[in-house]
Structures are given as structure tokens and as C-alpha cells.
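anyone seen this seq b4? input:
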Amino acid sequence: MINRRTKIKEILLITHLLILQLACYGQDLKFFNQRPKKNLFVELGGNGGLLSLNHEKIHLISFKLMLVYKIGLGCTQDYSFKSPENYFISLPGNLTLCFGKRRVLFELGLGATVFLKVNDPFYEFSFYPIIGYRFQPLKANKLFLKATISLPQNLGSSNFSISNSEIIFVPIGISIGKSF
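predicted toks r here
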């Protein structure tokens, strides 16, 4: 009889502790879920060419992990800076995971960009891994900063052009924008 009562007490104690733990975790997630879910930013260099305008959607997976979707519209030119002959519209898209506790997050993921030549039916596709570091605000309408490195498999030997074409691809991108 005593064994059975002891077991019931142990089960009730464990259940009570689990409920308290979940309640505390739920409060943390409630605070965490108040962070902005979207970013709108301008990126200099990086996977959008020389300059791009981007939109990100953030999905919170847990307190320390976020899934980020990015799509953008950018522009770049051919390799000759002084007298470029060709201009390109770029369409970058990314899927990344962000790890961290508060505002400063490490970013790791994959991306792809389609470069469309203006006034010509030519396009170039580039696929690449992404490594980055971001400052993601905890409240809406605050400053968003990000630095990334994207190294496509078809990056030319000059490290600034896609191989077998003259498209400029700057592997390092600096972003600044607004979270909302």
C-alpha cells in the first residue's frame, strides 16, 4: 500500500514539475514571439548583384531557432566597370536558419539567383551556400543589419564573376533595413 502511494506521489510531483516547466517555457516563447516577423532591406553586394532590394519572412521555430525565407530584386552589370556593355536584373531567393538567443544571430542556409540580361534572352543561374551574421531587433520598426558570404559553385577564378560569363557577383553582402 505504501509503495503505491509513493508511486502516485512521485507521478503527481513529476507531472506538476513538467507543467511548471512548460508554463515557464511558454512565457519565454510568448516574449520571443513578439519580435518582428518581416524585414525589408537594401543589400550592397551579395547574392543580388551590386545592389538589391529584399524582403524576408521569419518563422519562429523555437526560442533559439528561426527559419527565414528571402526574395529580392537586384541589378548588376558585366565585369567592365568603366564602360559596361550589359546590365542584368537579378532575382535572389534564400532559405536560411538563424541560431541565437536575442538580437545577434548566426545564419546558415542555401540560396539561388537568376540573372536576366536586359534586352536579351540570356539568363544565368547560380546556386550557393550562405553563411552570415545578423542583428535582428526584438521590436518592430527598428534597424536591421546583416552581413553574409555567398560562394556559388560556378564562381570564376577572379572571385567576382560567374564562370563562363561576365556577370559581377560580389560574394560578400552588407544589408541594412527595417523590421516590421
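The CA atoms of residues 114 and 125 lie 5 Å apart. The radius of gyration is 23 Å. kinda curious what u guys think
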